[in-house]
């Protein structure tokens, strides 16, 4: 029994941290300063390219991201271009060509995501952009969990993170100009052509550099209507006022009718000693309602049948 209980304890200790960390960031449930954002429509594997040309080399970096879940093995394993890890949400794949033609490099590195087997934490930080700039609407998402070895770091890996400013743009879904996982199978020339075409896309590269806290930070700007402060409220209009008005009107009418019947019945009982149907005010009229309705229906049917008959001389 002790062996079984210890085994269960070890199993839970290994599984629970993974579950808690996996649930640490939910793209569909972002609550910041009493505002709710649902970024799940932006989910899926997307790619973004950036070319950096210097005198020493031309570096083409492909950033692959899925803000809602892990990339998986297909998107995070680029074969000769490098590997990143299936539990990551943002990866970078570097293709560096020195100008002298010697020492080309291809490698992948993680920027955001969980450790192997889902452990670790992305350390999410959420901030409304209005608290930074009152004229800007949206939400800033900061996620961590990767590492990168820079050119000047003497072989030492440093932590990485991503800061994505989801900026409100009512005219954009956020998917404009994005390259999907299926498009990534195209040749390099086609990729560059798509990159030029998507320069005005909703997702834009801002920078990837070493910050003051000695962390490499990828900064992106993502314009989308889903980052508007009141978008969720606009999707589901608040009809509580109109519904409340009709509800109160129905209640008031019901109470008036009930009061009229009760008071009229009490009056007929005390004044005339009425019983049964005679208790109700205008009881004769109420008893005649079914017959009046039947006569009205018969009159309507006769009118319709009469309008459909043909005119002309009748037989003598």
UniProtKB/TrEMBL annotation:
It comes from the Eukaryota. SUPFAM superfamilies: Mannose 6-phosphate receptor domain (SSF50911). Keywords: Autophagy, Cytoplasmic vesicle, Disulfide bond, Golgi apparatus, Membrane, Mitochondrion, Protein transport, Signal, Transmembrane, Transmembrane helix, Transport. It holds the Pfam family ATG27. Its main location: membrane. Residues 179-188 have a biased composition (Acidic residues). It is a single-pass type I membrane protein; Single-pass membrane protein. The chain crosses the membrane at residues 243-263. GO terms for cellular component: cytoplasmic vesicle membrane; Golgi membrane; mitochondrial membrane; phagophore assembly site membrane. GO terms for biological process: autophagy; protein transport. It is found in: Cytoplasmic vesicle membrane; Golgi apparatus membrane; Mitochondrion membrane; Preautophagosomal structure membrane. Residues 1-22 form the signal peptide. This is Autophagy-related protein 27. It comes from Penicillium cataractarum.
